[in-house]
Write a structure and sequence with these properties.
single chain, 398 residues, mainly alpha, two-stranded antiparallel sheet
Length: 398
Amino acid sequence: MRSRIDPLTVAAMAVAVVSISATAPLTAAASASPLAMAFWRNALGFATLGPFLLILRRREVARVARGERGLLRREQWRPLAFGFLAATSLALHLAAFMTSTRMTSVAMATALVATQPVWQALIAAGQGVRAAPRTWAGLTLAVVGAAAAAGLDIRSGGTALTGDLLALAGAVAQAGYTALSQRARADVSTPLFSTFSSLVCGLELLAVCRLAGLPLTGFDKPTQLSLLGLLLLPQLLGLGSLSFALGRTSATTMSVLLLLETPVAALAAWWLMGQGIEPAAVPGLLLIIVGVTVVVASGEGEQTAPQQGRHRKGIPPYPDHAPYTPPQPEPQPFGHPAGRDPRVEWAGLGGDGSPTITLTYHGAGAFDTMYLGRPHAEEERPPLDDPVETWSDHVRRP
């Protein structure tokens, strides 16, 4: 365990928080339709990062194109369907959240969409995952805080209340995107899946804009600057800084730190647009931050618990669509040093490594799902075209 974070990592964490916090203010300051902004937000990110990620995974892309991995075999239709559903959830998230920034305050929209871990915990509970008491306590605090913060909007009604509901819908859609992404990534790497989901998401948003007759060009200069800011800050600088920091600190630390997005975004909205925060809403906003912090912190303990003692029920076999099936280890004479069973790595139960965890945030758009795992100190890293390699491996120092 590291007792101290180096200054470069601290700087990267600060840059990530500030860059991601620019999402809501830049969207609210633009004059174009939120749906058009959501399309260009995703399209620009795909055009910039998509080719780069495809180059990183060029061998995998070639294998998929040749059908060597059998992506369209009968057993793979289900993951493919989950991939389309995940991209649709991402499109709903972008549309709902970016629209909410126009209808309610930036602080409210950012705080409510930050409740995504709460909804993720509820989805996990619905799938049979037993949540710790601390998780339910944090969930309760976040719900009470959301109700308290939205009290003024509920009493006044109108567009502000609709904006609050859209922000909550964006958080639910983001939680759905995370859950569906995990189900979809059966046979492809995170970079390739992120590129695929970004492409599908962009096409869906484009279709909605066309059907609604929304203009996609001819924006004024402030809107063009907002789109440029969305590309440079949350999409490129925010994602890059976050990936850099994730290689040097825990995902839980970053998840909690990203909750500072609410006050930072509120300050940016006040500075750019003169948008203030109602004093009566401050206690509720603080309760949301505290509740989500409790949920995120307790979630790490729940994920590491299955590795201990009686919860381990054995190593599952390789599925038929696994990237490769190594030969079974040959029996050795008594006293011979035992070799490492490769199935241990597939099951995620090897050594001191922690199980795979996810960190998501709406600031990075289509490239916001990080799959992390703690590598073994003496273990050779997987080759570039191995689908279990993570995006953070490219930015982690040896």
